[in-house]
Write a structure and sequence with these properties.
Bound molecules: zinc ion
Distance between the termini: 31 Å
Number of helices: 11
Structural class: mainly alpha
Length: 239
């Protein structure tokens, strides 16, 4: 089995990772976004009637800001309504209200502990995304034993957060994985040094008297730097 490009892939997950690299997307961002999307789709369809989910809500599960909005948009796209979102947010709000009422008093240290715990939304969509990103990092480190994958990881548009995540996984892995990562990192550093030089030229041309000197390459470096720090954008998928 192979992906649409040159990278050998044994299963659907590897085809996805290969496609992401071949399309200039960060494969770890891509895996996380796909998992987030699948989680939101499932919640919008079945979340309001899912008993297991209600039980988890009793243990503090809620939705982060991003995925509260994501859930409502997903449901709107799927069903033209936001009723399931209302059912779920009502259930979270009841539990948050009960928790906040328990905190109203003059016990400052109790409030500190309670509010710190409430500040973690325990978002199931984030949890799925984090798990998928972790699995993608592990799979990519395995795949780096193949020369074509190693080269693709060296030249691929991996975002900075996930360069760090891959490096951390490699550092914690066996010696041969660490050695493979050193080569990938060296190639990534060459890519980032070149990006930084072009970005500096772009920034230098940002004044109004120099703007006509901006090249297409410099403009592309500006966009690439945003992807480097912000992760691969998800216009196709995020509801
Ligand atoms: Zn990424
Ligand atoms: Zn979330």
């Amino acid at each position: 089995m192979t992906g649409p490009g040159k990278l050998p892939a044994r299963d659907f997950e590897e085809i996805r990772l290969a496609e992401a690299l071949e399309r200039g997307r960060c494969p770890v961002c891509d895996a996380r976004q796909e998992a987030n999307y699948a989680a939101l789709r499932g919640l919008a369809r079945e979340g309001a009637t899912d008993r297991g989910l209600r039980a988890q809500m009793d243990k503090g599960l809620g939705f982060c800001q991003l995925h509260s909005v994501g859930l409502s948009k997903m449901e709107l796209v799927q069903t033209s309504s936001q009723l399931a979102t209302a059912v779920l947010l009502d259930a979270v709000l009841r539990r948050r209200l009960a928790a906040l009422k328990r905190l109203s008093g003059d016990d400052a240290s109790g409030q500190l502990r309670g509010l710190a715990e409430l500040s973690d939304a325990k978002c199931p969509v984030c949890a799925r995304g984090t798990e998928a990103a972790r699995a993608a990092v592990g799979r990519l480190m395995e795949l780096s034993a193949d020369g074509a994958w190693s080269a693709a990881l060296g030249s691929g548009e991996i975002c900075l957060d996930h360069i760090f995540a891959l490096g951390l996984a490699a550092a914690a892995g066996p010696r041969e994985v660490h050695a493979r990562w050193s080569e990938i990192l060296a190639a990534q550093l060459r890519r980032l040094e070149s990006l930084q030089r072009t970005l500096a030229e772009y920034a230098h041309n940002s004044t109004s008297d120099r703007r006509h000197l901006i090249s297409a390459e410099q403009q592309a470096a500006g966009a690439a730097s945003i992807r480097l720090f912000g992760g691969t954008s998800d216009r196709d998928r995020t509801p």
